[in-house]
Amino acid sequence: MRAHPSAAICLGRVTPTVPLSRPIYQLGVVKERAITGNQKPNAPASRRVDGETVADVGEFGVIDRATAGRRQPDTTLVGPGDDAALVRAADGRVAVSTDMLVEGRHFRLDWSTPEAVGRKAIAQNAADVAALGARPTAFVVALGCPSHTPATVLDELSDGIGCAAEELGAGVVGGDLVQAEHIVVSITVLGDLEGRAPVRRSAAQPGDVVAIAGQTGMSAAGLALLASVGRSRAVELYPELVAAHQVPTPPYDLAYAAARGGVHAMTDVSDGLLADLRHIADASGVQIVLHDSAVPIVSDDSAFIPPLLSDAAQFLDANPMTWMLTGGEDHAFAAAFDPSTPLPAGWRPIGTVRDGHGIVAPMHDTESGGWHSFQ
Amino acid sequence: MRAHPSAAICLGRVTPTVPLSRPIYQLGVVKERAITGNQKPNAPASRRVDGETVADVGEFGVIDRATAGRRQPDTTLVGPGDDAALVRAADGRVAVSTDMLVEGRHFRLDWSTPEAVGRKAIAQNAADVAALGARPTAFVVALGCPSHTPATVLDELSDGIGCAAEELGAGVVGGDLVQAEHIVVSITVLGDLEGRAPVRRSAAQPGDVVAIAGQTGMSAAGLALLASVGRSRAVELYPELVAAHQVPTPPYDLAYAAARGGVHAMTDVSDGLLADLRHIADASGVQIVLHDSAVPIVSDDSAFIPPLLSDAAQFLDANPMTWMLTGGEDHAFAAAFDPSTPLPAGWRPIGTVRDGHGIVAPMHDTESGGWHSFQ
Questions:
Q1: In chain B, whose CA is at the least distance from the CA of A180?
Q2: Which residues of A touch B106 (CB under 8 A)?
Q3: Given A167, A192, A217, which residue is the final one in a domain?
Q4: d(CA B322, CA A68)
Q5: Residues A92, B92: C-beta atoms closer than 8 Å
Q6: Does the CB of A253 have a partner CB in chain B at under 8 Å?
Q7: ipTM of the complex
Q8: Is residue A373 part of a domain?
Q9: Do A128 and B282 touch (CB under 8 A)?
Q10: Per-residue pLDDT tens for B327-365?
C-alpha cells in the first residue's frame, strides 16, 4: 500500500520512456457530475492497494483520488465538486475545442504510459486553441474505461492530465467517469484570446509568407520505430522520437507570438503538414506553394531535415520527407503571415500564398524515384 | 437516395417513440479538429445512399453532412470549421460541464432512436449548467463509433443534438469524430450566468426550505417498462414514461427562476432524489429532513405520486416511491431556498434543512412492509 500525499505534486515533464520511480505523486483530474462535493482540497487522499481495479475503488473513489489536492489557477472560479464549473473569461469570449482519444486507435498502453496518454490528450487540445491564438485556461475530462481497469492506470492517466494542465497554467475543472469497453479519453479545452482577434484558417491572402513553428515528422518516425522494432529497442535507439510520438510538445509560445501580430491564418499540424496546409488553402480560397528548399530531394541532406529523422529513416529504409510532410500528431503550427512584417522568431518560411487552390509542392515520383512539382 | 435540404430544419421535440417520417430534415453537429473548413453554411449537403456506413461516407463526409446548414446563435463568434470555436461569454465568466454516454451502458438503440440519444445527451449536459444557474450557450461534441455504423445513425444522432441545442438557443460549435468499439457520445456544454452568482451545492443553510422542480421517477419507470415488456408493448401502454426515459425534459426555466432569487444551493437530479439531496447535504455540512407528505406510504395514493407512476407501478408490481426517490436521469432540479422568500412558481416544498448531516426520510421497512423514519 502506498499513501497519497495531501497535495498534488507535478514533477515537470517526465520523459515517458523513463521508468517512473517517483516516491510520491498525486492524481490529476476527473471530477464527475455526480461528485459528492465533500472533497476537501487538502484532505489526505485514500490509500491504494496494488491490484485494485476501478470496480474495487468505485467511481467515487477514483474521483476522490483524482481531484484531491490539485491546484487551481485564478481563472477557476468554481472548480470540481458542483454540477458545473465556472471559469473566468476575462475578455468576454471563450475559445473551445474538443478531442477524443480511444485506446487501441490513438494510443496503446504497451507503447505509452498512462501518464503519457494524459499528457498527449492535453497537448492536442491545447494546440487547438493555441492555433486560434488563445491560451488554455481550463480543461474538462470525460473518461470511459472497463471496470477491470487497474486503479493505478487511472491514477497515472489523471496525473498526466493534471500535471500537463498545470504546466500550461490551466485548471482541470470538471469531468465525468463512465464504464466503457476500452479506455476513452475525451477532453475539452477552454482558452483565452487575451483581447486579440481569433486567428482563423480562412484569412490567408495571396502574397502571404507560409511558415512553420516546431518540427513535423517526429511523431510519425517514433510510431514507425515502435511498430518496426518494438518499444524497448525503439527507446534504446531513438528515445527522442519515441517520446515525440508519446507526448507531443507543441511550441505554444510561437503560436501566441504569431497571434500577437502579422499572422493572417494559422492551424496546428495534427493531420500532416500537407493536409493541414490544404485546410488553410481551402478555407481561404487560395493556393499555397511550398519552396523547393522546404521539400528537398531526399538525397540532399538538407538542413531542413533534422539529422535524427534522416538517421532513423536510414535505419528503417524509410523516407524522412514522407514523415515530415504527411505525419500528424506533432502539433507544430503552420501559418500564413503578412509579408510586410517580419516573421516572429522561431518561425521558418516554407512557402508562399498565391491565387488558385490546393497545394503545390515538389513531390516524390514513384516511377522515377525522384521528385517533381505536383499540385 | 434522399437529398438533404440546404438548411437545417428542427421540427421541435419529436416524441422519440413515434416513428419519424419527416420528409426533409438535416443533420446537426459534429465538427472535427481536422475539418476542412470549406463548408458553406448554406451549401447543399451531399446525398445519402441507403445502407451506407460511416466508413463509406468517410470522416469528412460525415462531418460535412453534420455541419451544413445548422444555424448558430449570436453567441457563436467562430463556429465549426476552425481548430477551435469562439463563444461569447458576456459577463466575463463561462460555466462548463461534460458528460459521456456509452452505447449499451447509457442507451440502447433498440430502446431509443439515435435522435433521442442525441437529445438526451444535450439535456443532461444542459441540466448541469442550469443547476449552477447558467443558460447553455454552446456545445461541443466528441463522437466515437465503429466504422460499420450506418451513416443514417450518425445523421439522426446529429439531428437530435443539433435540434435540441437549437431549441435551447445554443450552438453546436465544434466536435471530433473518431473510430471506437461502441458509440460514445461525449458532450461539453458552456453556459452563461447572465451576471448572477453561481448556485453552488455547498451553501444550503439550516432553516432553508428544500424544494423540487420537475418530476422524478418517470425515467426509472420507463426503463423498468422497457426491461420488463419490451419497447413495443411499453410504448403502447405508457408512451409518456418511455419517452421520459428516452429524452428527459429538465424544467430549465424553473432552475433559472430559482437562480434569480432566493436559492442557496441547487443540483439537478441525475443520480436519484435522495442521492442528489445527499450531495447538497454533504457539500453544505447540513442535514436535510424530508416531509412525510413528500414520501407518502404507498397505500396512500397521495397527490405527490403522479397517477401515471402509480398505475405503471401497479402494472409491474413495483414501488413508485422507489422510482421517485432513487430513479435518476429525469434531471429535475432540487434546491434549498431561503425561507424568508417565497418559492418561485413551479417549485414544490418537500423538506427542510437543519444542523446535522445526511438525509432523514420516512423509508420503507422491508420487515414490516411499512415505512419508518430513517437517516
A1: B102
A2: 178
A3: A192
A4: 33
A5: yes
A6: no
A7: 0.85
A8: no
A9: no
A10: 989 999 999 999 999 999 999 999 999 999 999 886 654
